[in-house]
Amino acid sequence: MTREDVVQGLIDYFRTEQWRRMLDVLEYQHPRDAHLHLHVDGCIDITSLDQVLTSYFNTWGWPPIRAINHMVMDDDMYVLHGIGPLGKPNWDLFCHWNPDAALVSAAGREGGCNLLLWGRHFMEEWYTEFDFRSVGLQEEQAVRDYFQTEHWETGLALAANRELVTHIHINVKTSVSPDVFERIALEDLKRRGWSIDWSYPTIYRPHGEELRKLGSEGPMAGYLTKVVFLAREPVQVPVDLAWKFDPNVIMAEDRSPRLRDDRPGYDAFLTSELHSMEKAHPWFKLTEQELQTVAEALSQRHNRARAWQWAD
């Protein structure tokens, strides 16, 4: 592909059915009640696509309210993580390396789908699968005790270390409802000086070898559960408290393998892995002029779409 082909292919993506469905979901879902995954294939480098999306949402009047988080799953896939347009749900974009396309809809990358939504109603149904214990004063104190542990404090320190870590899951096991420990976690974060825009529950799934290790089948097989805390201070980063149900434990560190075997208690995505991914393939980095060309084309398309809506 020539550079002109790549730029035009990137512009064309924003008229695809997948992207139109994505905008519909963002338009009508409450930001505190939903989380989305969008899967694409392409060769646009992570910084360029971040810049394009930021410009796009600024044009729509939905400017991202925090910096978009850059992370990788492996050398063939990066994630623009924690994309938060103003007043819209938080969502993640997974870009799978494809040297033959600028940016196109991915084919069935996650449970046979390329656009997934988990809302509050879905999570309430999901929780019915767990026999959470009743919580009295003793159980609540045990939960509060967890948030004074070295495991929790180390996880927060890692989340704030942007030079080392791009994203982290703090892994726990518990038998209490996440509604309980989400509330207590928010109290603890406030006490520590963390500013949280909001928090929400969602699910996530490993990929590749990590998913196969779980040994499950079906479209919802292998999913794990977490509560996401969208931090603004001291760093603009999602902090994920990822939990597994254990009827014998009120709340404690979980050192069993999840996404990463080599980091017991945490799934930490490292800055060094981001650098490795960027070097593994010739990702296409847009010049300032090419970024301007894309921005102008998408702005014109936005204005035509708005005019059509008003005329209708």
Extended strand count: 12
Radius of gyration: 20 Å
From N to C, what is the helix and strand string?
A: HHEHEEEEEHHHEHEHEEEEHH
Overall SS class:
alpha+beta
The biggest beta sheet reads: 6 strands, mixed
Give the helix tally: 10
Q: Ranges with pLDDT <50 over ≥5 residues? A: 208-219, 304-312
**Form type:** elongated
Number of domains: 2
User: What is the end-to-end distance?
Assistant: 39 Å
Describe the 3D structure.
- It is a single chain.
- By secondary structure, the chain is of the alpha+beta class.
- The protein has two domains: 3-119 and 282-311, no CATH class; 130-270, no CATH class.
- The protein is 39% helix and 27% strand.
- It is built from ten helices and twelve strands.
- It has helices at 3-13, 17-28, 46-59, 120-127, 137-146, 150-160, 178-191, 208-214, 271-280, 288-311; strands spanning 34-42, 69-74, 77-83, 90-97, 103-105, 115-119, 165-174, 195-204, 224-233, 237-245, 251-253, 266-270.
- The strands form two sheets. Strands 1, 2, 3, 4, 5 and 6 form a six-stranded mixed sheet that branches.
- α1 runs parallel beside α10 (288-311) and α3 (46-59) runs parallel beside α10 (288-311).
- The protein is elongated.
- It starts with a helix and ends with a helix.
- The relative contact order is 0.17.
- Mean pLDDT is 88; it is low at 208-219 and 304-312.
